[in-house]
Every structure is written in structure tokens, then in C-alpha cells.
Amino acid sequence: MAVPIFNLRDVPDDEADDIRQLLTEHRIEHYETPAGRWGMSSPALWITNDGQREHVKELIAQYQQQRTLAARQLYEDQKAQGQHLTLWGSVKLHPLRYVAALLAIAFIMFVSVGPFLKWMGG
Q1: Taking the CA of residue 81 as centre, how many other CA atoms within 13 Å lie in the half-sphere pointing to its CB?
Q2: Helix 13-25 to helix 53-80 angle, to the nearest 10 degrees?
Q3: What are the residues whose beta carbons fall under 8 Å from the beta carbon of 98, sequence distance 6 or more?
Q4: Which of 4, 10, 15, 76 sees the fewest Cβ atoms within 10 Å?
Q5: Torsion of CA 12, 15, 19, 22, to 10 degrees
Q6: pLDDT (tens digit, 9 = 90+) per residue, 9-21?
């Protein structure tokens, strides 16, 4: 019986490719279901042999642990060199995006709270 082994929703392409390659390298028979035309279905990787479930979960856990360590090391290296992205650096990189977001937040707050303030004031 087929078993869903890895959910692909919101997974970066490189990670999904790595998991596919991992399954192929270990000769684990698998297939993929796409998200569908409108993204309503659940994209996932499935294995066809239920008996391999624990082994595959272990392989994926090891891969994700290695990926986490590599990402953390990359962040630490960038931080040590002063190249990591901070909030202020992100604002400087995309100032219009942040101004638009702040204006949207202010508008929503005004529309949400404005009627109550008018009621209390007069």
C-alpha cells in the first residue's frame, strides 16, 4: 500500500530535489503527487512499500538534520563576516514594501478602531 512520506507544500525546490535524489540513491520506489492546477491538492512524495516507512523516515530525518546544521553554519559564517540580513537591512533593501505595509496596517487600524473612537469622543 502506498504511504505518503514527505509533504512538499511550502518546501524549497532544492530540498524537494534532494529528497527525491535521496530516495533514488537508496533504491526506494516512490512517486510524486502534484499540487494540482489550483494548488488545492496536497503535493507529496509517496513510497510504494509500507515496510520501508521507518527506514525512509530515518533517512529523511538525517538529511534534514544535516540541512539544518549546514544552514546554521552558513548563517553563522555570514554573521561573522557582517553579511547576514537584519531587519534594518531588509528595510533598506525594499523600502517601498515596508512603507506600503505600514500604510496598510494604519488604514486597517483606522477603519477598525475609528468608529469606536468617534463614539467615545462625542
Answers
A1: 8
A2: 140
A3: 90, 91
A4: 10
A5: 160
A6: 999 999 999 999 9
